[in-house]
Amino acid sequence: MSCASCTGIQICTPKGCKNNGTCGTDSCNKLTVFDWLGNMQSLKSKGTLKTVEVRFKNGRKKFYTLPDRIKVVVGDPVITEVENGYDLGLVSLTGDLVIFQMKKKKIDLESDQVSKILRKASQQEIDMWHSLRNKEPQIQKRARELAIALGLQMKISDVEYQADGGKATFYYTADSRVDFRQLIKDMAKTFSIRIEMRQIGLREEASRLGGIGSCGRELCCSTWLTDYRTVSTKSARYQQLSLNPVKLSGQCGKLKCCLNYELDAYRSALKNFPKPEVKLETEKGIGIFQKMDIFKEYLWYTYKGDWMNWHKLSLSSVLDIIKKNDNNEKVSSLEEYIDNSKDLSEKN
């Protein structure tokens, strides 16, 4: 990842902005959406679409309607309407692509999830917003001290100030239910603001903290991944991986998100393979499935009772044997179909 602040210097080596993919320069921001309709003819008549997408801290995105007198472009800071105050966000998407994003997230234009933009942010409001953002690490540290003093089994991982300074949202993780009523009273008294506690998952916490994965690269969730899909052990089984929780778990303690990346390719390839419980009937004995190489299309079988000797068969050979078995025919032996060809990797 490289920031716009260092791309103009020829000697500079891009080293990232150390903001875990959530910086505001829009050159390495994982929350940025590419407007692939930007150079196309508008789907609607000009001036009729008054809905934009606004981005906030911690990956929050919401849709807002624009007043008739305001025109904005991507990156403009705007003041949005919230309960008992206002907040500041950056416009992340405009134009016809907003319609597609709303359909994708199943949000209706007339629903309560679409609020209003009040105005463009003034320089004074932007300066105040920056000063509040700079206070957040100190507030987070003090909040953790208060939680430890009360003996609460929770971890406060992030703080987000509202742009008007009247409210702060504390994001925390916990293994079980936490009674933080006294904590809220102590924090409200200490910080003199309204407090909101919001529990987040371990994946979302890992995306905020960042780190290096077992592959040697930065965590996907902290650089580009925004859609945290459910990962199950079925993904590992489809890919013939060992069900070792140490190897399959990421830094968040959950199954790695990358187990889903190639899952569709494995599922598609497995459609041509017979099920593992299918046995091969031969005159020499019954062939039992042991393992397979999905993309090289090899399967290994052993005779029932002779578990030490594995026989490597090609997918076409196995399907041929199964077809003959379905017609009540038995082949002489598995050895007749053994594939002795060597891969390039084996020759080297």
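Second entry:
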Amino acid sequence: MNQQPFFQSTEVLHKRLADLYQTATVLPWVPSEMLPQAFEELHHTSKTLQLAVEELYQQNEELIRTQNFLATEHQRYQDLFEYAPDAYLVTNALGTIHEANQMAAKLLNVDKQFLIGKPITNFIPLKEREQVRSKINRLSESDRNTELFVRLQQLHGDIFNAALTVAAVRNQQGEVISLRWLIRNITARNKWESSEIKSISSIIRERPLSKYIKGDNIPLNPLKILHVCRGWVKLSTFCETGEEVLMGLAGAGMIFGSSMTSLTIYQAKALSEVELVSIHVSEITASPHLSHNFLPKINQRLQQTESLLAISGKRQVQERLRYLLEFLKQEIGEPLPEGIRLNARLTHEDIASACCANRVTITRFLSKLKQLGVISFDSHRHMILKDFNCSK
């Protein structure tokens, strides 16, 4: 707001009141005692107004300086975003791109204008998009930065391995209003680490395999970590009522062990034919290669447990079941033309324990989903999931 005209008008009004006072004192029909008092009050009011205008003028000047400062800072941070050495994107909660910097456009081999308004999944290879969409939908469940490892495809270009660090921005109601993405091309890093990975693989290959068939309980040693070479293992505990609670699923390349939990009761059971190798905890702590390789595997197990804990906190059983099926699609799902096939066979009892519900209720809901065409089964009784929205 421009205060200068108002300030000038106040000065003119003050001067005219003074002139009017001098003129009125010589008029014979105005009582002599009335004019001094009236004009003194007007003069006082005029002075007060003048002081108020001066203060308002100063405040307006301060506001203008603040606005200029904020505009400068906004431009500075915009420049930092635009010319950052790493690729940055800002999307809405569903992953639609609202902002992108120059490095993001360069990394994805596309003009910035083309990025705006496009889903980030457009740059995921087609067969992997469903799993990435599921991961994006689950970002709202975490209050911390999330790291995703995916493959990205440049427009009319190559496919490369990428590490995505995602931070969710929430409103006062706790709802996610935007996602901020840091994208790094880690293909070169993977090549650099290939010799180290080979050495880890050779360590595993040199060890004797322990084999189990479906339904076997796998013995746990607190001094050893078990590495899954083939098959699926169900990890669970038991509550005070004797009911089993699903804590996680370990497949090929994943690790588990009683040393990774503080639970007094911890059980591992083979869901299929399973092959394992064991590695002593002391070997891992003594080897930087093993420690470096096992850290993301431990993080993966922790994220699994947190996801299952979040699912158990949903209010309605049907809602818990839908979120669990979405979790299973991501963790043990294999894309097929007819849907996502779960590679491990879970019983209704297993699913009920993960949903904190009884088996009869879960069986009823699964039957309903089967009737709706949301789930089906292949010839080996593996569940196949079609697209569905957890929020429904």
